[in-house]
Design goal:
By secondary structure, this protein is an alpha+beta fold. It is built from nine helices and 27 strands. A hairpin with a 2-residue loop joins strand 1 and strand 2. The longest helix is centred in the C-terminal third of the chain and has 18 residues.
């Protein structure tokens, strides 16, 4: 998915409104850059606003205001946009009269929490000797924090006692915790899965609180790790392989975001490919979260091309290791992953036998002019300006620039009401494929940036697998 702010994005920027019971909405904030509400204090007297008034949409600052919009305090690690250090609102203390705000910061090269009192200005650093990115939430009485520690595509939970600084590990299975909350009795409920096990809500009491309602998905195969030397450092990839001996037809399933990462968690689409005899490789390229601030922030100016360099390094490893059949390599992804798919088919035409792009950016300039305001701000940050200011960068990063070099059959799916990757720019790309007579298929559906309808999502996976089975060459030998 392409990231966006949580405020009301309008032409020319963002606005925040307050609606009191029985009243009418009152605007308390407006700015040309992206902004959004991070949280409302327990007693509803304070609002924490994440904003990018300094012009860097990748690194937010925080302003705490009253319900009338009056500023209480400001926290800006960017120093007016001169430092690439972001802040994130994690939540006010859940106690009446307690103004403490849990804030995520990047001051030590990764995401980790601190406690900030916007009324007094006091900042409290937390002694968390853990190697990866750290998220946090409050226990109900405000005396402890529930720590979510993410490292090398897995996550675990800890309890941090604020008074003593004691850190206690909470027993969770190996895999990924996608969400967790502390209960008043001290127990913790969490949403967990692994690549082999579908998601379920578990409790530290030992119970499974909730299985997926209706038909539960069958399990899949475990994931293994690959670390590959790339041009910007070691690249982490997650690999799932079907039964039998390789080399296999292999899908490189590229995640969206781009500020996101693949993890050891259940993915139904991946499981379907494995069931059909494909190996699946997921690459946490530069720009991905979870590997420190420098890895995420490396995605600047040569947008798309940087990620594809990392994907190429992993592709070479997959072939040389005997995992992947070099004649049956599929580049696939949705949203930003769909964008990288189309860009990769054009810039690496000899490398891929097939491309599957869902809700992609296909024509970067048209996409910029048609997309929502928060995404325009992100694109200006990534590319260093607008298409008029840095036309050469937009051209170098646009799949449309390289469409005439595409040799592999292409399958594209797109929502006709997509505000993030609008349909007009997809149609521009498709028209160029049609003019060349290039093999392609397009599936347009009546929704936005993807579908929430289960049957529709199943249908789309089925169409992609069918396209691959029809167009991929037979196995050699």
């Amino acid at each position: 998915m392409r990231e966006e702010g949580r405020g009301a994005a309008e032409p020319g920027g963002s606005s925040i409104h307050v609606l009191r019971p029985g009243g009418t909405p009152v605007e308390i904030y407006r700015h040309p850059e992206s902004a959004g509400v991070g949280d409302l204090s327990y007693d509803s007297s304070l609002i924490a606003v994440e904003h990018t008034e300094h012009g860097d949409a990748m690194h937010s600052s925080i302003r705490v205001v009253t319900l009338d919009g009056d500023t209480v305090a400001e926290l800006d690690d960017t120093k007016g946009g001169t430092e690439e250090l972001g802040l994130a609102v994690m939540g006010f203390a859940p106690v009446a009269g307690d103004p403490r705000l849990l804030v995520g910061h990047q001051r030590r090269g990764r995401w980790e929490p601190m406690i900030w009192n916007p009324v007094t200005g006091e900042e409290t650093a937390l002694a968390l000797d853990l190697p990866g990115d750290i998220g946090a939430d409050w226990y109900p009485d405000g005396s402890a924090l529930l720590i979510d520690h993410s490292h090398q595509a897995r996550s675990e939970l800890w309890r941090y006692d604020i008074a003593s600084g004691g850190l206690t590990r909470i027993d969770t299975p190996a895999g990924t915790v996608s969400g967790a909350t502390a209960r008043p009795d001290g127990s913790v409920e969490f949403l967990w899965s692994s690549a082999a096990r579908p998601p379920e809500v578990r409790s530290t009491t030992g119970k499974v609180v909730l299985d997926p309602p209706g038909m539960k998905a069958p399990g899949s195969v475990p994931v293994t790790d690959a670390w590959v030397d790339g041009p910007g450092g070691r690249v982490h990839a997650l690999v799932q392989r079907p039964e039998g001996d390789g080399p296999f037809p292999t899908v490189f399933d590229i995640h969206g975001g781009p500020t996101w990462h693949d993890s050891d968690s259940f993915a139904s689409g991946t499981a379907a490919w494995v069931d059909h005899g494909f190996a699946v490789v997921r690459v946490n390229y530069r720009g991905s979260t979870g590997y420190g601030r420098e890895w995420t922030d490396a995605l600047k100016h040569r947008v798309g091309l940087i990620e594809l360099e990392d994907i190429a390094a992993v592709r070479e490893w997959a072939v040389s290791s005997g995992l992947a059949d070099p004649a049956r390599l599929v580049l696939s992804g949705g949203s930003w992953g769909g964008y990288l798919t189309l860009l990769g088919l054009g810039t690496q035409p000899e490398a891929w036998a097939l491309g599957l792009a869902a809700v992609p950016v296909a024509d970067y300039v048209t996409a910029y002019h048609d997309e929502m305001e928060a995404l325009k701000a992100m694109d200006r940050t990534l590319l260093g300006g607008t298409p008029e200011e840095v036309p050469e960068r937009f051209a170098a990063s646009s799949p449309l620039t390289y469409v005439d070099q595409v040799r592999a059959p292409v399958y594209i799916s797109a929502g006709v009401n997509d505000p993030r990757c609008p349909i007009r720019q997809v149609e521009n790309y498709v028209r160029r494929l049609e003019e060349r007579g290039a093999p392609h298929e397009v599936y347009r559906y009546d929704a936005g940036h993807g579908s929430l309808v289960v049957e529709e999502r199943i249908k789309q996976v089925r169409l992609e697998i069918d396209f691959a089975q029809r167009y991929l060459p037979a196995a050699s030998g």
